[in-house]
User: What shape does this take?
Amino acid sequence: MKTKNRTKLILSALALILCLALQITCQNQKAAPPEPARIEPAAGPVRFGVSFDKELSREPLDGRILLMISAQDGAEPRFQISDGPDTQLIFGIDVDGLLPGQAAVIDETVLGYPLKSIAEIPPG
Assistant: This one.
């Protein structure tokens, strides 16, 4: 039972770290001077990889990883998710036996809400 609780705690911490990193990245981009409205197509498909170091856990982890993406300032993305029309984006995958250093990948094949895939995220 302790292992499951520890696993849930570690995965929750990983999800929170990912959310905070995304929020900081978005804030830093807004602080930069505006650039011309020129959008280059991505070199390849969009992918997010989440992993953990063996210092965090030497045991394989099970759980769920949630990726939340927000286009709004203010509250953390996790507080902007709802079933309403103004909700932000959320994508999730189950992990079973994820090893230290192994990446859990969220790509265009992962089902999301309200968009079905990260491939549908508009540029910007």
